[in-house]
Amino acid sequence: MSPRESCFPLGLANRIAILFLCAGCATSAPVSQKSNLDSITRSATKGEVELTIQLSPKNPRLSDLVEMEVKVSFPNNISIEPPVFGQSVGDFAVREYGERKSKNESTNGSQENDPSVKELRTFRYQLEPMFSGRHLIRSIPIVFVNSDRPDDSRDIIQSEPIEVEVQSDLGNAAPDLANVDPMLDPIGARTIRTTTWVIGFLIGALALALVLFLRSRKKKPIEQPALPPDVIASLELDRLIQEDLPRQGRVKEFYLRLTGIVREYIEGTTGLRAPEQTTEEFLRDVRHSDRFDGTHAVRLQDFLEAADMVKYAAQQPNEDNISQSVSRAKEFISTRFIRAVATDDSHLKPGGRN
What we know:
Blueprint: H1 3-27, E1 40-46, E2 49-56, E3 66-75, E4 78-80, E5 88-89, E6 92-103, E7 118-129, E8 133-137, E9 141-146, E10 154-158, E11 162-166, H2 192-216, H3 229-243, H4 251-270, H5 279-287, H6 294-312, H7 319-333
Antiparallel strand pairs: 1-2, 2-3, 3-7, 4-9, 5-6, 6-7, 8-11, 9-10
Helix pairs in contact: 3-4, 4-6, 4-7, 5-6, 6-7
C-alpha cells in the first residue's frame, strides 16, 4: 500500500470525529428565552381562578400600538364571561381583538368533568394611544360561575389598575430657531429661482415642525373658580335623575354614574382617591380613616356592594331598589365627613368590588 492510500482513511476518520464534536457543541448551547422586561404585568387569584394582565411595550410612543393580553385560568367546573370593553380600554382605543382557548391534560388522562383540568382563555387586544402623557386602564373585572354550587351564584375577580406613560414622538427635543444657518452671500441671477425654492422649503419644514411641537404640548386649561364638592355632586345627581336612564333599559350605566358621583364627592371632601380605587381598596381606606364613623362606613359599603352586583353580576334592581340607591347617594352628598372623635369599625365586613 502506498503512503498516499494509507493516509486517506485516517483523514476521513478525523473529519467524522470533528463533525461529531461540532454537533455536540451545538446541542449543548443554552436556549435563550424571551425577556418580559418591556412589559407591565398584573396578576390576581380568587379560589381556583387566576387572572393575568400583560401590557407591552412598557413605555410606548404615541405612534406605537400597544399589545394587551388578558389570561384567565380556571378548572372545568367554572365558566367565565369575557371582559366587555366596547370601543376603548381606559384611555386607549381598541383596534383589534382576538381570543384563544386551550386545556391542560389531567393526571389520569381524561378531561370530561375533571376539576383538575385547567382551561386557559386568552383575550388579545391591540390598543392605540390617543394622546401623549399618562394613560389609565382601570381594574379589569372577570365574572365567573361555579357550576358545583346549587344556586349558580356569580363571583368576580379583578386586576389592579394599570398606568402607562405614553411618550411624544418628538421626545424632549423642541425646534430651536437659533440653529438656523445664517443668510448666504448674494448669488448670481441664474441661481436665484433655485435658491428661493430651497429657502421656501426650509421655512415650511421649520414651520411644520413648530406646529407639531405646539400641538404635542398639553394646553393648560384656564382655571375657573372651583365650586364646592357638594354643589358639583348635587348638580351631577340632578342631571342623572332627569335623564331617567333605568326607563331606557340603561340600568348598568345609571349605577356606574351614580357611584361615580358619590366617589368623586368623597374624594373632594376627604382627599381619598376614591374614583381610581377598587371598591375593596376604597373601603379598606375608609376603615382606616378617622373621617368616617362606623355607621357611615357600613352604609357606604352596602351602597357600593349593591351597585357592584348591578354593574358586574347582571342583577336587575326594581324601582324601589333604584329609589333607595338615589336616596342613599343624596344622604352621602349631604354628609360632612368631619374628623370623628372615636370610631368602631370592628363590625364592618371586609370585601367589595369596583
